[in-house]
């Protein structure tokens, strides 16, 4: 029996090392990694730039508290602001913490601006924002809330991308609207860019804040640095994590000056957030992702992947229903159980991730090449073929 809490249904695979888009088990079997540790290892495994950044920093200093100036933290913060809408950044260590900071900042903004009653956020059915008490309340999913006492107060859920429903849900206590530009865990469900534009206008009209959770969609995943750029709008507050550290735990909450100014000394904190090791790696990730042409390549590879998958969905229309997503954040909505396709892919040396709405998530590293996309598509083709003949045998 394992000493670990049984919170995960684990595959039983154990990886000893990784290289680019591939992982190798302790016995040397190779797996094509189209999961990237759930959109985390954005530059693949053992990227030389990241390995160098981490090992060089490890020889200097690992940790000092946030009671001191941390040069690389200032630098990464400034670079994130220069490349986005933001004026201020708070560093954390995970996605949930980045969302938690976003929720606190939204409440605090209204508090210091004379509207302390505005503490509620409008969220969306099927959303995922993390596993802390506040973020499970924000996500509002029964399976995540069950058994953990009364949900944290302050979240009002609406269904679908329905601007009228959002408007109807706005009250005197509403602080803002929180959503993912593409629902990752919820099944790679795209939010229409038009809806994001309408939300931006509605928030401005009502004097409330737009909060985007870009923990999964950010850092190049969709072919733009952050996904909201596709919609041509900017949020007031944004959470980022996953790809930001390329595999090292880094989270960030980005805000406008108006919101950031409300977070005065003592209002929030994190012991580990923004520590020198994390910041060295975060800066190295940006070195690569913000290089001219990198994001265009991601968009290009994403198109290639989606085109190939659309062909496979036609060919295997008894197994696959639809291809979704943007850039290298792609979902395969299945007709058979998604877990069966994931298992069939794993048997053939390819890793993917389950998502809600019976979807298989494809999250290759952003450095993926044509050969690996071709290999992935051939593997999906073979797995679908095998599922089909298995179903035929059973019939
Ligand atoms: C993964 C995820 C989170 C939670 O991140 P953790 O690092 O697991 O806390 C929050 N929001 C979104 C959109 C995510 O995909």
From TrEMBL:
Listed GO CC annotations: cytoplasm
GO molecular function: identical protein binding; N2-acetyl-L-ornithine:2-oxoglutarate 5-aminotransferase activity; pyridoxal phosphate binding
Residue sites binding pyridoxal 5'-phosphate per the record: 95-96, 128, 213-216, 271
Pfam families (alphabetical): Aminotran_3 (PF00202)
EC number(s) on file: 2.6.1.11
Transport listed as a keyword: no
The entry's keywords: Amino-acid biosynthesis, Aminotransferase, Arginine biosynthesis, Cytoplasm, Pyridoxal phosphate, Transferase
Residue(s) carrying N6-(pyridoxal phosphate)lysine: 242
A GO BP annotation: L-arginine biosynthetic process
Cofactor binding mode and count: Binds 1 pyridoxal phosphate per subunit.
Annotated metabolic or biological route of this protein: Amino-acid biosynthesis; L-arginine biosynthesis; N(2)-acetyl-L-ornithine from L-glutamate: step 4/4
Cellular compartments annotated: Cytoplasm
Domain of life, per lineage: Bacteria
List of residues binding N(2)-acetyl-L-ornithine: 131, 270
Principal EC category: transferase
Cofactor(s) of this protein: pyridoxal 5'-phosphate
Spans traversing the lipid bilayer: none
Catalytic activity field: N(2)-acetyl-L-ornithine + 2-oxoglutarate = N-acetyl-L-glutamate 5-semialdehyde + L-glutamate
Note in the entry: May also have succinyldiaminopimelate aminotransferase activity, thus carrying out the corresponding step in lysine biosynthesis.
UniProt cross-references to PANTHER family, sorted A to Z: AMINOTRANSFERASE CLASS III, SUCCINYLORNITHINE TRANSAMINASE
Family per record: Belongs to the class-III pyridoxal-phosphate-dependent aminotransferase family. ArgD subfamily.
Subunit structure: Homodimer.
Name listed for the protein in its UniProt record: Acetylornithine aminotransferase
Organism encoding this protein: Methyloceanibacter superfactus
Taxonomic lineage from the root: Bacteria, Pseudomonadati, Pseudomonadota, Alphaproteobacteria, Hyphomicrobiales
Primary gene name: argD
């Amino acid at each position: 029996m394992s000493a670990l809490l049984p919170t995960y249904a684990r595959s039983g695979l154990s990886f000893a090392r990784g290289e680019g888009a591939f992982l190798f088990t302790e016995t040397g079997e190779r797996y094509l990694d189209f999961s990237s540790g759930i959109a985390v290892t954005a530059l693949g495994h053992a990227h030389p730039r990241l390995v160098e950044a981490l090992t060089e920093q490890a020889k200097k200093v690992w940790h000092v508290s946030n009671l001191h100036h941390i040069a690389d933290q200032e630098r990464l913060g400034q670079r994130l602001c220069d490349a986005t809408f933001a004026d201020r950044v708070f560093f954390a260590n995970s996605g949930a913490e980045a969302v938690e900071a976003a929720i606190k900042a939204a409440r605090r903004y209204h508090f210091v601006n004379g509207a302390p009653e505005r503490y509620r956020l409008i969220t969306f059915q099927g959303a995922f924002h993390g596993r802390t008490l506040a973020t499970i309340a924000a996500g509002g999913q029964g399976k995540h809330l069950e058994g953990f006492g009364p949900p944290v107060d302050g979240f009002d859920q609406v269904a679908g991308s329905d601007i009228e429903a959002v408007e109807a849900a706005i009250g005197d206590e509403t602080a803002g609207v929180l959503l993912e530009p593409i629902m990752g865990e919820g099944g790679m469900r795209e939010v229409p860019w038009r809806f994001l534009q309408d939300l931006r206008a509605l928030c401005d009209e009502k004097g409330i804040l737009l909060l985007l959770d870009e923990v999964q969609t950010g850092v190049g995943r969709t072919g733009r640095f952050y996904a909201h750029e596709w919609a041509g709008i900017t949020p007031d507050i944004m959470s980022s994590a996953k790809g930001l550290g390329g595999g090292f735990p880094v989270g960030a909450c980005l805000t406008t000056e108006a919101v950031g100014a409300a977070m005065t000394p003592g209002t929030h904190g994190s012991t580990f957030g923004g520590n020198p090791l994390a910041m060295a790696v975060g800066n190295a990730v940006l070195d690569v992702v913000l290089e001219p042409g990198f994001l265009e390549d991601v968009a290009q590879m994403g198109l290639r992947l989606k085109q190939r998958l659309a062909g496979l969905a036609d060919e295997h229309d008894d197994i696959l229903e639809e291809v979704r997503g943007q850039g290298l954040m792609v979902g395969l909505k299945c007709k058979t159980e998604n877990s069966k396709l994931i298992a069939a892919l794993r048997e053939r040396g390819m890793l993917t991730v389950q998502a809600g709405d019976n979807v298989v998530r494809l999250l290759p590293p952003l450095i993926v090449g044509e050969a690996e996309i071709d290999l992935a598509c051939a593997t999906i083709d073979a797995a679908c073929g095998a599922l089909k003949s298995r179903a035929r045998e059973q019939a």
